[in-house]
Amino acid sequence: VCEAEAAGMLVLVLSWLCLPAVASVSGGKLPEAEVKTEVLHRPFICHRKSKYGDMLLVHHDGFFENGTIFYTSRSQGAGDKDAMWFTLGIRQVIKGWDVGLQNMCAGEKRRLVIPPSLAYGKEGKGKIPPESTLTFIVELLEIRNGPRSHESFQEMDLNDDWRLSKDEVKEYLRKEYERYGYPPNDTLHESVAEDIFDKEDKNKDGFISSREFTYKHDEL
Ligand SMILES: [Ca+2]
Ligand SMILES: [Ca+2]
């Protein structure tokens, strides 16, 4: 449900609410497998490069090792309609993407060759057979501050006291709704803010501290 909703509207708000509880689960063992990255197109102008915690909007095509295509986000022929937003570095996507799509400019296009251990592994998934090495052509369309980024926190912390009050969170929700063309809805903002505080205000002091806010990135 979260994914479907997040695709359509209120990307930031929903991805905040729907974030998986990312624990540092990587258990210390370094993967020997690597993502092969090739830049196919680099834009002339690059104001900003992608980093962990950013939200990225991408188009992508996926290929098996024999060259057969198994996915394209452009199949509908409807422009950027099926481009996908995701947050980099939090295992919302396969590990090969988290690793291979760093330091990328908006407008840049890359080819990633990803070994199974950084993709769908021994099990495979859906139409991806077990132990598949996958190739992706990924075009980065847009970079935004991630829902849990330092920048987002500063943007929300209106009085600069390094903690978020419920009013600041509600104000943020109001602005996000406005940005996506939805009318403000105080009752809804109130209940969403309640939910957020239930989950995020770990020490129950009535504020979300920057430490409570920022997620810990998986060691990649
Ligand atoms: Ca504050
Ligand atoms: Ca707190």
TrEMBL record:
Classification via SUPFAM superfamilies: EF-hand (SSF47473), FKBP-like (SSF54534)
Domain of life according to the entry: Eukaryota
Location of the EF-hand domain: 144-179, 188-220
Catalytic EC class: isomerase
GO cellular component: a single term: endoplasmic reticulum
The enzyme's E.C. designation: 5.2.1.8
Pfam families: EF-hand_7, FKBP_C
Catalytic activity entry: [protein]-peptidylproline (omega=180) = [protein]-peptidylproline (omega=0)
Signal peptide: 1-23
Domain PPIase FKBP-type: from-to ranges: 53-144
GO terms of molecular function: calcium ion binding; peptidyl-prolyl cis-trans isomerase activity
Metal-binding listed as a keyword: yes
The UniProt record lists the keyword Ribonucleoprotein: no
Keywords per UniProt: Calcium, Disulfide bond, Endoplasmic reticulum, Glycoprotein, Isomerase, Metal-binding, Repeat, Rotamase, Signal
Assembly: Monomer. Homodimer. Interacts with type III, type IV and type X collagens.
Function: PPIase which accelerates the folding of proteins during protein synthesis. Has a preference for substrates containing 4-hydroxylproline modifications, including type III collagen. May also target type VI and type X collagens.
Protein's recorded name: peptidylprolyl isomerase
Origin species: Nothobranchius furzeri (Turquoise killifish)
Record lineage: Eukaryota, Metazoa, Chordata, Craniata, Vertebrata
Gene: FKBP14
